[in-house]
Amino acid sequence: KEPNVTVSKSEEDWTNQDVIIKIELDEDVNPDGEYELQYKDDDGEWKPYDPETGIIVSENTEIEVNLTDGENNGGSITVVVDNIDKNLPEGTLNVIPTQDKVIVNVDAKDDLSGIEEYIYQIGKVNEDGEIEWQEPISSTDNNHIFEDLEKDTTYKVKVEIIDKAGNKTVLEEEVTTLEDGTSGQFIQISQDSRKWTSQSVKVTVTATTNQYKTEYSIDGTTWTEFESIQELTITENRTVYGRASLNGQILEVVSLDVTNIDKQAPKAEIEISDITSRSFKATLKAEDEISGIAKLIWYYKPADKDTYEQKEYNYVVIGSTGQGAKTQNTTYD
């Protein structure tokens, strides 16, 4: 049978400390004082109960408490202690940088009390190694996005994993945000050729992950969702964009400028001067505002000939950007 006793614990909620069990006998249970309390834990030995110290329990177990006068059993009860968690939570970080954001994913577990919260913090690493920490952020989510960061800058990320018993594991990782460009963490944009052409070019937008929503745009306004790889035929010079997002939150935007399409013919004027009975001077003024002039080819046919002859001039312009001259004058005698 169970004796009429009152059992109390020093901690009823999850704790990472020892639990002290106190037992009080009701007055009518032992009016003459002939009964004493004793208890038995995992070692299997009965011990006298000391009301001053109680029963100190350091790990989850079951305590058997007995009321005895040395011969007759006055009843017993079992006290279960299952709220002690002294183990640290386990976890790993996955830190992903973009141009102006850092995405933090935490893979954590706690087999006893469970995860209570995550505390996220980020700090800029200065040239002398000192860290300018931002204010910590408490969350129950195992992922967080730090925003409005500087590009091409080193940051230290710190995450505290705290379980319901108060145990804490601290994880840290250093990461550098990306520069502007055509290659991001989640989106990459490439072009089949950068040489000047009068044809269309092929641009490929590639998603490096399927964890996030990925989109492309050829005007920066209208976005089209895609998965894995999207090939685009670009017919005129323009900027192609790619972006990745999570739950409406833009993670990164990358872009590629297509600048090597020229479908416009050069402009040219020929002036004839100094005409004599045996010769004349032809002056050509040629202009091309996009790709520039790479070469000039003269065609001429003497009156006694049936076919045209040609002569080619290649342009080498000192100080040119390599696209050829925008405007050139030449004279052919």
Q: What does the model show?
A:
The strands form 8 sheets. Strands 10, 11, 12, 14 and 15 form a 5-stranded antiparallel sheet that branches. Strands 4-3-6-7 form a 4-stranded antiparallel sheet, with no helix packed on it. It has strands at about 5-10, 20-25, 35-40, 45-50, 55, 60-70, 75-80, 90-95, 100-110, 115-125, 130-135, 135-140, 145, 155-165, 170-175, 185-190, 200-205, 215, 225, 230-235, 240-245, 250-260, 265-275, 280-285, 295-300, 310-315, 325-330. It has about 325 residues and is mainly beta. The chain contains no helices and 27 strands.
Spell out the blueprint of helices and strands.
Elements: E1 5-9, E2 19-25, E3 36-40, E4 46-48, E5 55-57, E6 61-68, E7 73-81, E8 90-97, E9 102-109, E10 115-125, E11 131-133, E12 137-139, E13 143-146, E14 154-163, E15 168-176, E16 187-191, E17 201-207, E18 213-217, E19 224-226, E20 229-234, E21 238-246, E22 249-258, E23 267-273, E24 281-287, E25 295-300, E26 309-314, E27 327-332
Antiparallel strand pairs: 1-2, 2-5, 3-4, 3-6, 6-7, 8-9, 9-13, 10-11, 10-12, 10-14, 14-15, 16-17, 17-20, 18-19, 18-21, 21-22, 23-24, 24-27, 25-26
Helical percentage? under 10%
- Cα(first) to Cα(last) distance is 127 Å
Beta percentage is over 45%
Instruction: Summarize the helix and strand pattern as letters.
Output: EEEEEEEEEEEEEEEEEEEEEEEEEEE
